[in-house]
Amino acid sequence: MIATANLDLWRAWKEEGDLEAKKRLIEQFLPLVDYVTNRMAIGLPKNVLKDDLASNGVMGLIDAIEKFDYCRGLQFETYASWRIRGSIIDGLRQGDWVPRSVREKAKRIEEAYQSLEQKYLRSVSDAEISEYLNVSEKEFTTMLHEIAITTVCSLEDPIREEESETRLSLLIDERAKNPDHKAHEFFLKDSLVNGIEKLTEKERTVISLFYYEELSLSEIAEVMSLSPSRISQLHSKAILRLRGALAKHKDQLLQH
């Protein structure tokens, strides 16, 4: 729920167009930008400056304040966090921060998980993935390390390139949806749930702690008594499995 003091600011901004109220809201929620920026900076290349991430994040915060409907009684912090993340990701995409070769490796592994897990109807091992890719398990581990930076934000990529709706946004009800959209959303959520069920126990734990408990990868490493690099590998494998499951869902939709 929105605090009474904030409610007065929201009313002044939304109903009266009070720019001073908007400015105060921006100042009040600026720490959200720092929080999201610090989390997303983990695992990114050193040439990606945190100040650049923060600048894009501020634009996301302003966008959130302009679009937020305070009358619905939703928590602004949750809504704004997604908008801030989205704005930062847009900035990263425009900067083309991931080399094409790394994107291609990520795509190969994603397709391997999708193909093998659809074939065997279970979680497949590193050895099976390595054999499918015709690489050694050591080479597969190296590939996971290289693509780790592409998976930190990948659940927030658009479901389709021409759409703005993201995979994780399906877990947040931002606005009322029509029945057709609701049906699509139901099956997509179902695919996501099924994908999560096929993750290994450690992978599920990493996903839960990172996306729902909002721990950093280094904090998860401490909780699970594993090295940060191992946590990064688990995160990458989990994301690629989920992306494969969601790609399968999209293919099924297109067939109908």
UniProtKB/TrEMBL annotation:
Protein name: RNA polymerase sigma-D factor
InterPro entries documented for this protein: RNA_pol_sigma-70_dom, RNA_pol_sigma70, RNA_pol_sigma70_r2, RNA_pol_sigma70_r4, RNA_pol_sigma_FliA_WhiG, RNA_pol_sigma_r2, RNA_pol_sigma_r3/r4-like
Residues that span the membrane, as ranges: none
Pfam families: Sigma70_r2, Sigma70_r4
Source organism of the structure: Paenibacillus glycanilyticus
SUPFAM superfamilies registered for this protein in UniProt: Sigma2 domain of RNA polymerase sigma factors (SSF88946), Sigma3 and sigma4 domains of RNA polymerase sigma factors (SSF88659)
Keywords: DNA-binding, Sigma factor, Transcription, Transcription regulation
Domain RNA polymerase sigma-70: residue ranges: 216-242
